[in-house]
Amino acid sequence: MTLRVLAAMSGGVDSAVAAARAAEAGHDVTGVHLALSKNPQSYRSGARGCCTVEDSRDARRAADVIGIPFYVWDMAEEFDRDVVSDFVAEYAAGRTPNPCLRCNEKIKFAAVLDRAIALGFDAVCTGHHVRKVDGRLRRSVDLDKDQSYVLGVLTREQVAHAMFPLGDCTKAEVRAEAERRGLAVADKPDSHDICFIADGDTAGFLNDRLGGEPGPIKDESGAVLGTHQGAHTFTVGQRKGLNLGGAVERRYVLSIEPVNNTVTVGPRDSLKVDEITAERPVWSGCAPLTEPTACQVQLRAHGEVYGCRAVERDGRLVIELDEPATGVAAGQAAVLYDGDTVLGSGTIAATARREHGTRV
Amino acid sequence: MRRRMLDTAMVYLDHAATTAVRPEAVADMTEEFGHLGNPSSLHGAGRRARRAVEEARESVADSLDCTPNEVVFTSGGTEADNLAVKGLYWWRHQSSPRRRRILVSAVEHHAALDPARWMADHQGAVYEEIPVDRHGRVAPEALRAAVERDPDDVALVSVMWANNEVGTVQPVAELAAVAREYQIPFHTDAVQAVGSQPVSFAESGVSALTVSAHKIGGPVGAGALLLARGVEPAPVLHGGGQEREIRSGTLMTPLLRGFATALRLAVAERAAHARHLAELRDSLVAAVRERVPDAVLNGHPTERLPGIAHLSFPGCEGDALLMLLDARGIACSTGSACSAGVAQASHVLLAMGADPETARSSLRFSLGRDSGAADVAALGEAIGPVVERARAARRKRRAA
Questions:
Q1: For the domain bounded by A272-352, which CATH number is listed?
Q2: Which of A153, A323, B156, B220 is 20 to 30 A from A210 via CA?
Q3: Which tens digits make up the pLDDT trace of A244-269?
Q4: Where is this region: Interaction with tRNA (chain A) (predicted)?
């Protein structure tokens, strides 16, 4: 069936090849580059981002080569509100957000998808490394590049209107195909980090927006061990940058309390948690799990996968891990899998050790 | 793989962006490209090329009612505007350092606005916009008020002959007369006016006038700045000094011949062409309004170019309309400048008092020599469902 497909083209190699494949499959494809900054130069420069003037030009050239119409959509307002401001607010609240995931949830498969549908398109196509099989998301065959985690927040409805042509091949194959198709972006470097933080200095970005108020670093007993320059620059599980000279054992960030600007640290063992509560559960791959069900969970991008039992209870997702995990940060997504199939996800709100009390 | 290209667009309603090169110009250029010779060379081949250039210059002068030595060839409208704004500022400021103010209308093309702003940012100029009324017109009294605040510190005035977005025609002769009273050089960008308006350099009383070839059936890459006797802008391009030491660069003989030919034909056919465009424009506006009764026609009700219909579609985003029409093979423009492909709210509409939402809801349809009733009919067919769809998308976006 020929679909009217809107291909989101970042200017990178993946989305270019994805658009080319969609067109070759006989769909009626239109390329769209999302302008995410009112001032395109203000975000990342060079070839690593996805919202510079050069990226827009690269996307246009790719669309020319593929032979599809191309436009730029101004999504700067939505991006600033739903991704950048959300990112800052989450850190201010002591959580660790994943902006790529938020962008998929709120921009690519919400604002863009909604507009596309309203304008007569059937689907949004992206270059994510993920497979869609029978309406469910499955990990890419290239596990190093698999992006099912950052798409785990999508609803069944969002997945239904998504097209992911790259899930059945590796990144190396995508690059080779781009070369073969004459797409100049074939050897463009992968994007990394956070596209709206131009220099990669997340702490500096947050300090500019939230101010860097010095505060205490305490241990679990409440004893002050040192001083930090702004609680929001820390992430649970972090070891570097604490500057606790003379400590006899390695200490890790256990929790961040923005209200009293306190960072609590402790030994690695104190990081271990095996019970996770997550908010806003969504289920793209199965009916809501109303009974505790054995499955697997991933707790951060490129993170380890843990066996678990998960259940939705009172609008929250409760996950009991088979073995303890460390460095589980509030604000990240807990994405549930059955093998390589995404079942659903929630946003981590609290973690606990079953024999201990709730800590975060 | 299917290829969709602009060439396959059945309905081209963007002639103000660029229009087809006339076959007569193509023939002249094709012949000229077969010749060898730099017009600045002293040998026979050079003299032959020089003769072609000077014949083109005389033809252009004849078409625009100026003398041949008032014609400075440029690469097009943008270069001519830059030369006028920057060059006149430097010339005037040099002779009296008090002269710092550049007065430009708020609806100028970016080719005039941006050099003026750049001069303010980098060269110590003072940038000042002359306001326009809701039709986009500069009142001579508004210019007078701006000048009379301190006539001695004005370096130059630049007001376009006709606006490229909404098509409003300015009272250029009256405005030029105000500047003349104070011996202030007056530049006008007549890129959109030539071909449908009677443009006489001599009668207009302006000091400098920009014209471009590709808007009137000539090639892209050629244009001219007409400079009245005694008006001596400092050069922007330095080099061989080919054009009266004011503009350097090897003269592009084939393009200049194409320019002269297209201009000669455009001026000769002007009256009939303008009538044809006006009739077509009126039927286009009627066709759109029949389907979209709340569409608003922007610009001056009478003092306007015959070939431009600039319409706001309440509740729509211009870029969505453009995309949906493009998908139906209808080419038009949002009329405003782009930044990295993102359509900005038009500074012209904003200067006319429109709110940003309205400014972003607008499309420019511009007609040309090849336009006909079939184009209007096709737009009439498409516009209803397109607007409906764009409105649904806008509502969705607002609700989110």
A1: 2.40.30.10
A2: A153
A3: 776 567 889 998 888 888 999 998 88
A4: 145-147
Tell me phi and psi for residue A298, to 5 degrees.
Answer: -115, 135
φ, ψ of residue B263 to 5 degrees: the values are: -65, -45
Tell me the pLDDT of chain B averaged across its residues.
95
The stretches in chain A having pLDDT less than 50 are: 42-49, 358-360
pLDDT at B7 over 60: no
ipTM value, please give it.
0.88
Which chain A residues touch B if contact means CB-CB below 8 Å? 23-24, 30, 33, 35, 40, 53, 56, 60, 66-69, 71-74, 76, 78, 110-111, 114-115, 117-120
Residue of A nearest to B318 (CA): A73
CA dihedral A225, A230, A233, A237 (to 10 degrees): 20
What architecture is domain B6-16+270-399? Alpha-Beta Complex (3.90)
Closest CA to B189 of B167, B210, B168: B210
Domain B23-268 has CATH 3.40.640.10: yes
Q: Encoding tokens for residue B208?
A: 């400098």
- Which CATH superfamily is A212-270 part of? Adenine nucleotide alpha hydrolases-like domains (2.30.30.280)
DSSP annotation of A13 reads H
Quickly name the fold that domain A4-187 has. Answer: Rossmann fold (3.40.50)
Tokens for A98, please give them. 């994943």
Give residue A241's identity as a one-letter amino acid code.
G
pLDDT of residue A41: 54
Chain A residue nearest residue B394, CA to CA:
A115
In 3D space, the residue among A25, A123, A121 whose CA is nearest the CA of residue B1 turns out to be: A25
